[in-house]
Amino acid sequence: MSEQATNQNQEVELDVTNEEQQQAPDVELEQADPVVEEQSDELAKALEDVALYKEAALRAQAEAQNVRRRAEADVEKAHKFALEKFAKSVITVADNLERALASSDNQEDPMREGVELTLKDLIETLSRFDVVAVNPEGEPFNPELHQAMTMVPNPNLEPNTVMDVVQKGYTLNGRLLRPAMVVVSSAA
After folding, report:
1. Which of 166, 101, 91, 96 is closest to 127 using CA atoms?
2. What secondary structure does DSSP assign to 70-118, as a single string?
3. Which of 21, 103, 109, 127 is 20 to 30 A removed from 92 (C-alpha atoms)?
4. Contact (CB, 8 A) for 131 and 93
5. What share of the chain has pLDDT > 90, as a percent?
6. Which residues in 130-151 are b (16+ Cβ under 10 Å) and which e?
7. Starting from the edge strand earliest in sequence, which strands make up the sheet with 169-172, in order?
8. Mean of all residue pLDDT scores within the chain
């Protein structure tokens, strides 16, 4: 054979070899595709799991923080209003001392002076613990702080104005212990 024919045969063989080599990686890629797909599916599932666990951890952290805040608020309220039952009992003593003073006619009586001093000391002690008297005479009626005993027509006052206080009310740290029992004016 001539040299030319030999060169052509070698070129054809090289072309066939190159084609085979090019086809061989395709076969390997086709075989690798299921493995890659399986791994990418596993990765996607793992990423979903990570997102779920991250969300669950954030929710648990938020819930723990909420529980801690509620517990702190409950403790604060317990401290703030621990005296409520005691204060309700003590304010009746203040009422009785005020009644005793109102029933005494003699201003020079030493007993009256002792009751006045006792009442003054009791009111000061109550105020130290944020127990404050509500004496709304002349103020507009407030249903959150006052309890209307009766309504009386009075042309000299605006309607719904407190005319008289039958019994003082009290608050503890701004919270109502006992409403003031009042007589309210009505339109004439």
Report:
1. 91
2. HHHHHHHHHHHTTTHHHHHHHHHHHHHHHHHHHH---TT-HHHHHHHHH
3. 109
4. no
5. 54
6. ebbbbebeeeebeeebbeeeee
7. 131-134, 169-172, 175-178
8. 84
List, for residues 63-117, the tens digit of each pLDDT value. Answer: 999 999 999 999 988 887 888 889 999 999 999 999 999 888 888 888 889 999 9
Residue with tokens 């001539």: 2
Residue 27, pLDDT > 50, answer: no
Q: 0.85 exceeded by the pTM?
A: no
Of 105, 132, 131, 100, residue with least CA distance to 116? 100
Q: Strand order in 162-167's β-sheet?
A: 146-153, 180-186, 162-167
In 3-state terms, what secondary structure has residue 181?
strand
CA–CA distances in Å: residue 155 to residues 82, 118, 130, 158: 44, 39, 37, 7
Other beta carbons within 10 Å of 83: 17
Distance CA 180, CA 144 (A): 10
